[in-house]
Amino acid sequence: MSDPTHLSLAEARDALKSKRLSAVELTQAHLDAIEKSRALNCFITETPELALSQARESDTRIARGEARRLEGLPLGIKDLYCSKGVRTTAASRILDDFTPTYESTVSANLLRDGAATLGKLNLDEFAMGSSNETSAFGPVVSPWRRAGDPDAKIVPGGSSGGSSAAVAAHLCLGATATDTGGSIRQPAAFTGTVGIKPTYGRCSRWGIVAFASSLDQAGPIARNVRDAAIMLRSMAGHDPKDTTSVDTPVPDYEAAVGASVKGRRIGVPKEYRIDGMSAEIAALWDQGAAWLKDAGAEIVEISLPHTRYALPTYYIIAPAEASSNLARYDGVRYGRREQGRDVIEMYEKTRATGFGPEVRRRIMIGTYVLSAGYYDAYYVRAQKVRSLIKRDFDEAFASGVDAVLTPATPSTAFAQGEKGAADPVEMYLNDVFTVTVNMAGLPGVAVPGGLAANGLPLGLQLIGRPFDEETLFSLAAAIELTAPKIERPRPWWREG
Amino acid sequence: MSVDSATVRRIAHLSRIAIDDSEVERLRGELNAILAFVETLSEVDIDGVEPLTSALPMQMKKRADVVTDGGICDDILANAPLREDHYFVVPKVIE
Q1: Rg (chain B; Cα; Å)
Q2: How far apart are alpha carbons A413 and A188 in whole angstroms?
Q3: Where are the domains of chain B?
Q4: To the nearest whole percent, how much of chain A has pLDDT over 70?
Q5: Contact in structure between A211 and A180 (CB atoms under 8 Å)
Q6: What distance, in Å, lies between the first and last C-alpha atoms of chain A?
Q7: What is the Cα–Cα distance from A190 to A164, expressed in whole angstroms?
Q8: Poorest-confidence range of A1-5, A82-86, A333-337?
Q9: Known catalytic residue: A78?
Q10: Is residue A272 a part of any domain in this protein?
């Protein structure tokens, strides 16, 4: 078979099933692609021997007629998921050569279903960032380039930038990712891939390095809607080890791909038409609504009045939870340790050299808003505004809306160093359309809508009712069917 | 609200992050930029609104109070920067 990295996950599954391709051939083709693509810096740790031994087992199982759901399909794992026996870094120096003695529940679910794991994907340090520029292992370069501007290195989004770039560059069939304020959907939109953040509680958080526990959720990034649906079915499920994991059956999401969307009511929230929205983003949004209308859906304007407060609320709640979660990195039980005269100096020096600037900044903001005298003014107030943000969505869904359509990001991807250097808030604005979804615990999917005039991908976002990922897959598939096809970027980065 | 340099030092110490004197001004500017950004929340009417502590209404799950794990000392200590037998080693805490 010609280069198997051209296959989608679903096509590769079928090729393995019909024995037109072996799992070892499929995995080896991806390992070769990874080796030639180091210029993109997608992987922090490559695990070729592990992947090939998993592929060999898959070939044995396929020969015996015992193939599991993801048998022999090579995936990438965001380096925020603990992998048993494989160094796990969260893209931070503070974890040093931390090698977990356990496997995260979500990655264990993928292994249970027969997937092969190619390695650990780069990300923003502790998932804090929107461009993958805060990684201690260097930035990831997107396989996409601006038209007529081959010298600018484009960011793949963040925090799941290694995941989005690796999927877009065909280095893996799909990748795990996590989303606290947009970290699955924004990188998917920036790279012309599909990313879904499921409902809070749908995937177990156990064994995933914690950022902001009331917002964090695992999900896949894949090259099309069907592949994302296949991956999520394996990733989701109840886990007694995560008390917020929900004990409801996981549907066959793939069955929802291609289902009719006739009669579905789609809300278009007027507050998302923010000041200074580019004409291109506004046109994409209108186009997305028109595509769904052509597919038989009904478009209605809705109001989500507290939208503009979501990002400020996020920048209190997320750092507060992060400052608490990251207190565990003290140089005692694992990771880096700097010497000090006493235990306090040891903590302070370890954390000063171990954490990068963005992580230090967020820990300090979180510490401040939780400190005596400021707790009510900042943290409790933010939690109350969060109630109002969630109430906006509750009311929209109660009025009969099945899903909400918005742009995924306020712009296309930008080049390294272009944003946030002078003012951290400039970078935070990337998440203006995605962060509301984490606030309300809802599912959200980013699906490609076409290319902008600068040649870079643009994405649309659909937001659903709690645990109604199926409707999102149906609607996203309807958009995918009509939207201009995203071609594989020309592999300018390949060596040899 | 905005922070002064004494507050920056206090927050850094509460965060257990060592900072150089040369960093204080820059950090003060960055923290104040973020605090100015979140200031807009003060205009929201939150009278009678309950704080949201769980994204979705859910009962705290409880499990039987039984031992489900254990005997994994070596696993727990496997990544320790400094250990002795089955102990983590830290600088002297009590004089």
Answers
A1: 23
A2: 10
A3: 5-43
A4: 99
A5: yes
A6: 21
A7: 8
A8: A1-5
A9: yes
A10: no
Residue pairs spanning A and B at CB distance below 8 A: 167
CA distance to A138, A337, A427, per residue, from A94 (Å):
15, 8, 24
Identify the closest residue of chain A to B53 by CA–CA distance: A383
Is there a contact between A475 and A266 (Cβ–Cβ < 8 Å)? yes
pLDDT of A50 strictly over 80: yes
Instruction: Band the pLDDT of B95: cuts 50, 70, 90.
Output: low
Active-site hit among A22, A58, A159, A234: A159
Interface residue B24 vs chain A (CB under 8 A)? no
Q: How many whole angstroms separate alpha carbon B7 and alpha carbon B21?
A: 13
Biggest alpha carbon–alpha carbon distance for chain B:
57
Is residue B12 less than 8 Å (CB to CB) from chain A?
A: yes
| Residue at A495 is within a domain | no
Which of A333, A349, A424 is facing B80, going by the closest CB pair? A333
- State the complex-level ipTM: 0.95
Is A98 within 8 Å of B79 when comparing Cβ atoms? yes
> Considering only CA atoms, which of A44, A32, A31 is closest in space to residue A116?
A31
Task: Catalytic residue, from A22, A78, A92, A104: name it.
Answer: A78
User: Which three-class secondary structure state does DSSP give residue A258?
Assistant: coil
Chain segment B78-92, per-residue pLDDT in tens: 999 999 999 999 988
**Option in B17, B35, B92 nearest A351 (CB):** B17
CB-CB under 8 Å, B53 with A101: no
Residue ranges with strand state E in A136-256: 174-179, 194-197, 217-222
| Distance of alpha carbon A273 from alpha carbon A313, whole angstroms | 19
Distances in whole angstroms, Cα of residue A174 to Cα of each of A43, A226, A331: 14, 11, 34
* β pairing state of A43-46 and A174-179: unpaired
CATH number at residue A448: 3.90.1300.10
Does B34 contact A378 at a Cβ distance shorter than 8 Å?
no
Q: Which runs of E-coded beta strand occur in A292-363?
A: 298-302
Tell which residue, B1, B6, B12, B92, has the closest CA to residue A348: B12
- Residue A283 CA neighbour count, 13 Å, CB half: 8
Quick check: A420 contacting B, CB < 8 Å? no
User: Which range is least confidently modeled, A362-366, A426-430, B73-77?
Assistant: A426-430
To the nearest 10°, report the CA torsion of A293, A294, A295, A298: 20
- Percent with pLDDT over 90 in chain A: 95
- How far apart are alpha carbons A186 and A459 in whole angstroms? 8
Distance of CA A206 to the CA centre of its chain: 17
Q: What angle do CA A172, A177, A179 make, to 5 degrees?
A: 155
Q: Which domain holds residue A68?
A: 4-263+408-482
Count of C-beta atoms within a 10 Å radius of residue A139: 22
Evaluate the omega torsion of the peptide bond into residue A159 and state whether it is cis, within 30 degrees of 0. yes
Paired tokens of A156: 């793949």
CA A443 to chain centre: 12
Number of domains in chain A: 1
Percent of residues, chain B, with pLDDT higher than 90? 78
Among A142, A183, A234, A323, the one annotated catalytic? A183
The one-character DSSP state at A376 is I
Q: Which of B35, B49, B58 sits opposite A387 (nearest CB)?
A: B49
Find the residue in A nearest to B24 (Cα).
A361
